[in-house]
Write a structure and sequence with these properties.
The structure holds three protein chains of three kinds.
Chain A lengths: L3 E16 L5 E17 L3 E5 L6 H8 L7 E6 L2 E2 L5 H10 E4 L13 H11 L5 H14 L16 H13 L5 E5 L7 H18 L2 E6 L2 H7 L2 E6 L2 E7 H6 L4 H9 L5 H6 L40 E2 L5 E2 L8
Chain B lengths: L1 E14 L2 E14 L3 E5 L6 H9 L6 E9 L2 E2 L5 H7 L4 E4 L13 H10 L6 H14 L5 H4 L9 H13 L5 E5 L7 H17 L3 E6 L2 H7 L2 E6 L2 E7 H6 L4 H9 L49 E2 L6 E2 L5 H13 L5
Parallel strand pairs in B: 3-8, 3-9, 6-7, 7-8
Antiparallel strand pairs in B: 1-2, 1-4, 4-5, 9-10, 10-12, 11-12
Chain C lengths: L1 H34 L3 H5 L6 H11 L5 H14 L3 H7 L5 H7 L5 E2 L4 E2 H36 L4 H15 L2 H15 L17 H34 L2 H8 L4 H29 L3 H7 L4 H10 L3 H29 L7
Helix pairs in contact in C: 1-4, 1-15, 7-8, 7-10, 7-12, 7-15, 8-10, 9-10, 9-13, 10-12, 11-12, 12-15, 13-14, 14-15
Classes of the chains: A alpha/beta, B alpha/beta, C mainly alpha.
């Protein structure tokens, strides 16, 4: 395994809960991210999967310092960047960029796309204006856009093309790490394939490392080397892609994998489906003990009292369950 | 006996830039108790088609052709008559449960409205029906739920409420437009299971619109693939996946991330869907089709024709052996052309 | 809901408190310092001697330090004048007689009346004007706005846009004077000026005299409200839940009124409450143009004759009305939209 470049230890991010008639006091916190460790190695793709309310988007924002974290630390290339701000933080921002989910919302509709893509260069004062424009056009070619469309507006492009613009904007600073927040969820299936291929090509050509946040397990399986499954702010299973996909040990991982619709009607009819009861819970009132136990199909009596911690085996496969499934 | 028969449906929108034909000569049938899936990507006209059946199009749209629902002919039906059918004979559930329920009215009020718009019942009877409807879709403590507001419920619950609301008047036709797209995967599994259960309990014909082939495989009996306003292939679900006949279908199946083995590039369909303002002549998929021939690019476009030895119909100029060969390759998961 | 209401009331009370402080400071020390207008000098008559000024100061309680004066003013506002104050200002009179001269809002020495009695004598006119105008503009704007939204770009929509533009562009005194000239003077459809008191048994004279000024006032607001109703309805009619209502088979009128209008009305209700609150403080231009003896006219007169207590009193009174209007608007909005109650 190559050396780690981005690590997070014990990250906690919460939102205050305020009560009070006249003066609002903070009476508690909603822990969206409740103690997460992760390590990203050079050249690899780490996927963080989970459903709404699990905290993965909040975690992604915390990792790129779009929001502050309450506890824990984030280290990039050996430097602790948890509390950096200003100039020092800008250095980090050049090397770790982000691609967002909604290609419509993440581009300023009043800004020409050339401007949008050039903005990172402007902010970091890289090169002369002529050089910047050239870099933008190179990036456009790399992601499969026509450089002559430099002066067009976002609404003149399709969803897939807009996502390419977002990708170009992310690579223009020549970063080492890109955090992709649901990069293909808002796209049609055939366009998803194009973007996934593009991301793979860029990783190979530019030596990038990715953190991919997603809920679509099939896309993740394509892209990811390692996977971390989140539930209610915690990582409940992690490991190499094959380990988690083929030998899930945590009941939630298994349910998540089983819930995917299978594009094969015979298989769909015959297979054993795990359908969880109840709703995806909100982190405002997490259950006592193991957070998954109210919905767990194999929960035991002790699960409501004991909150299992993530235990990682020597081969890197880890899970947080007192009664893990058979391998 | 076909409950819904659509023949040559053509829906045109008048826009500032000219007329746009969103549905261009679509024909299909659905039997009672059957689930027909309509698969296509954004802009293919599937939503426009469902809105045409419901009569929910804006005044700037014109509908031609025939939509026969039981004994009713829905095209050119007077608006008042159509309104009595909407919500009682034919019901629809929409994609986004977050925004599809009125945020300032209680669930109970909205459910009871659905009942009282079509049935002459007292308030108490309407409430009882609402409670029963919620119980039938698996919502716990239905009486208490009546007083809640939509924002107090989760996405999965809201979609269940929408389904309950649609079924209250025992419609003969239920149209579900991307009912699970906006939901989490585990919630999606719950809703799909609910729909499978309902299928056996309710005798309605169901039209399920989706872009997700996995959903189609899980729930549908028959599938119609739509592209640029036309149906390009229609088949029983097993046949569609085992012996797909149209190049677009091959493209859709091959692009599924679960299909490709790691290490190979994901199959992608080159280009993007055509603008419906100026659609290409001939077969609309020809510009993106790897196997397009000259005849494909000229009018008339290929029409749906039966495939020998099966219940599939496909609109494609390729000869049967080529289609069978390519279809088999895609179905087995090999890299296709 | 109760907690919501309590929070709003407490917040409102706090705002009123801040306003009393602001009014006190602005009409007291700042006014004196900036413009040499001291109530003592004004009251003391022509060419007062310094001793006379001093004795007047003591009479008015102005010899105390400012914070003490403020405290007294505040107390008087809440519980009324104390016996000590009464003795100071109107020695020898009974409590009832003294109330004619000194009220919660102070005393207008120029008029030898309490500010309260001045305000209360004028308030019915302003109230009537505001209410009738509000009814007129809401009854005009909401239907026109809704109909314009249902049929965008129709003849009705385009002509209402023109109407809106005219209403917003032409000043109120211009339209007012035109109206008076044509409708009251030349063709004598309406009375020239004046105000008839409201009586339950025969409200017509009251209404008849109010109709012209209220309509002119309403035209200004109608313009804005047609616009805002139209745009709100256009947005709401495109929402998904409206589509669901139609899918259920609801008639278009039901969809518009029961589903769309309720959701669209929030910003309209908010604006309405604020505008009504403002109007209750006196529609100065209308009152002056039409010769109505309302609060606005009173404020102008008081300012002209440098009657500080009265002017300050009107400002404070209006501020209290606006705060109350705000609270009512908040409660109505929370009733209309349950999501607001969570705040």
């Amino acid at each position: 395994m190559s050396e780690p470049i981005l690590t997070a230890t014990g990250v906690k991010i919460g939102f205050p809960v305020k009560r009070g008639i006249v003066f609002q006091r903070e009476v508690g916190r909603v822990q969206a991210v409740d103690g997460v460790d992760l390590t990203l190695h050079q050249g690899e793709t780490l996927a963080i999967v989970g459903e709404s309310g699990c905290g993965k988007t909040t975690l992604a924002r915390g990792l790129v310092r779009l929001r502050d974290i309450d506890a824990g630390s984030i280290t990039y290339m050996g430097d602790d960047i948890t509390r950096r701000s200003g100039r020092a933080l800008n250095d980090f921002r050049r090397q770790v960029t982000m691609i967002f989910q909604d290609p419509i919302a993440s581009l300023d509709p009043r800004m020409r796309i050339g401007q949008s893509m050039q903005e990172p260069l402007d902010i970091h004062s890289i090169g002369t204006p002529a050089e910047r424009k050239r870099k933008v056009q190179e990036a456009m070619e790399r992601v499969g856009l026509n450089p002559e469309h430099y002066n067009r507006f976002p609404h003149e492009f399709s969803g897939g093309q807009r996502q390419r613009i977002g990708i170009a904007r992310a690579i223009i600073l020549e970063p080492r790490v890109i955090v992709c927040d649901e990069p293909v969820s808002a796209l049609d299936v055939s366009v998803q394939a194009q973007i996934v291929n593009l991301l793979e090509d860029l990783q190979r050509d530019l030596g990038l490392s990715y953190i991919v946040i997603a809920h679509d397990l099939d896309v993740v399986r394509r892209l990811a080397d390692r996977v971390q499954v989140m539930y209610l702010g915690r990582v409940i299973e992690q490991g190499e892609g094959e380990q988690v996909y083929n030998h899930p040990r945590h009941p939630y991982s298994k349910a998540l994998l089983s819930a995917r619709p299978i594009a094969d009607p015979k298989l769909a009819r015959s297979r054993e489906r795990i359908v969880l009861q109840g709703d995806v819970p909100s982190p405002i009132n997490p259950p006592a003990g193991c957070r998954f136990h109210p919905r767990c199909p194999v929960a035991q009596a002790s699960c409501s009292a004991h909150d299992p911690q993530l235990e990682v085996a020597a081969d890197g496969h880890g899970w947080a369950c007192a009664y893990p499934l058979a391998p | 006996m076909a409950l819904l028969t659509v023949e040559n449906l053509r829906t045109t929108f008048r826009t500032d830039d000219g007329p746009v034909c969103a549905v261009d000569g679509v024909s299909l049938t659905v039997d009672a108790g059957q689930v027909l899936g309509i698969v296509g990507e954004s802009g293919c006209g599937k939503s426009a088609m469902s809105l045409s059946i419901m009569g929910l199009l804006p005044d700037s749209a014109t509908v031609e052709g025939s939509i026969q629902l039981g004994e009713h002919q829905l095209v050119d039906m007077p608006k008042n008559e159509l309104r009595t059918l909407r919500g009682s004979e034919v019901a629809m559930i929409f994609q986004d449960p977050m925004t599809s329920l009125n945020p300032v009215m209680t669930i109970g009020w909205q459910l009871e409205e659905a009942v009282r718009l079509h049935q002459k019942v007292s308030k108490r009877e309407a409430r009882a029906l609402a409670v029963a409807g919620l119980a039938a879709v698996g919502i716990p403590s239905p009486e208490d739920r009546l007083k809640t507001y939509p924002h107090e419920l989760s996405g999965g619950m809201r979609q269940r409420v929408m389904i309950a609301m649609a079924l209250l008047n025992r419609p003969r036709l239920l149209i579900a437009d991307e009912p699970t797209t906006a939901l989490d995967v585990t919630t999606q599994a719950q809703i799909l299971e609910l729909m499978r259960d309902l299928r056996s309990e309710v005798d309605a014909a169901i039209v399920l619109i989706t872009h997700d082939l996995g959903v189609v495989a899980e729930v549908c009996d028959e599938v119609a693939v739509m592209y640029a306003g036309r149906i390009v292939e229609r088949a029983p679900v097993d046949e569609l996946f085992a012996r797909p006949q149209h190049p677009y279908t091959w493209g859709l199946l091959a692009s599924l991330p679960g299909r490709n083995r790691a290490g190979e590039r994901l199959h992608q369909i080159a280009g993007s869907p055509p603008s419906l303002m100026n659609p290409p002549a001939g077969c609309r998929f020809a510009p993106r089709c790897a196997m397009a021939m000259d005849v494909c690019r000229a009018d008339p476009a290929p029409v749906l024709a039966a495939v020998a030895g099966s219940d599939t119909v496909v609109a494609c100029h390729l000869d049967a052996p080529t289609r069978a060969r390519e279809g088999a390759r895609v179905a087995s998961g090999e890299e296709s052309a | 809901m109760i907690r919501f209401l309590i929070r709003r009331i407490l917040g409102g009370a706090f705002v009123v408190l801040v306003v009393t402080l602001a009014v006190f400071v602005l009409f007291g020390p700042v006014l004196t310092w900036k413009s040499n207008i001291s109530p003592a000098r004004l009251y003391a008559g022509k060419n007062p001697s310094p001793q006379q000024i001093e004795s007047v100061k003591a009479l008015l309680g102005l010899d105390q330090p400012y914070y003490v004066q403020y405290a007294y003013t505040l107390r008087r506002l809440v519980v009324g004048p104390t016996q000590e104050e009464r003795d100071r200002v109107c020695p020898g009179s009974t409590a009832a007689e003294c109330d004619q001269l000194l009220g919660r809002f102070g005393s207008s020495f120029a008029k030898q009346r309490s500010v309260d009695s001045l305000i209360w004598s004028r308030f019915p006119v302003t109230l009537s004007l505001a209410i009738v105008a509000a009814l007129i503009w809401m009854l005009i704007s909401i239907p026109i706005g809704v109909l314009s939204a249902i049929r965008p770009r129709s003849l009705l929509d385009r002509s209402s846009t023109v109407f809106v533009l005219i209403g917003q562009s032409l000043p109120v005194y211009y339209i007012g004077l035109l109206a008076i000239y044509f409708l009251a003077y030349k063709y004598q459809i309406f009375p020239l000026s004046g105000y008839e008191n409201f009586s339950l048994s025969n409200p017509w004279p009251w209404l008849y005299h109010l109709l012209l000024p209220a309509t002119v006032l309403a035209l200004q607001f109608a313009a804005i409200y047609v616009r805002i109703t139209r745009s709100q309805m256009l947005d709401t009619l495109n929402e998904d839940y409206v589509r669901t209502a139609r899918a259920k088979g609801a008639s278009e009128s039901r969809v518009v009124v029961r589903h769309a209008l309720r959701n669209a009305s929030l910003p309209i209700v908010t604006m309405f409450g604020l505008d009504l609150g403002l109007l209750l403080g006196g529609a100065i231009l209308i009152e002056v143009t039409f010769g109505l003896q309302g609060l606005g006219a009173l404020a102008v007169e008081a300012a002209k004759r440098l009657d500080v207590p009265t002017t300050a009193g009107i400002v404070l009174f209006s501020a209290i009305l606006i705060v109350v209007a705000n609270i009512i608007v908040d409660v109505v909005c929370a009733t209309l939209d349950p999501r607001i109650r969570l705040e």
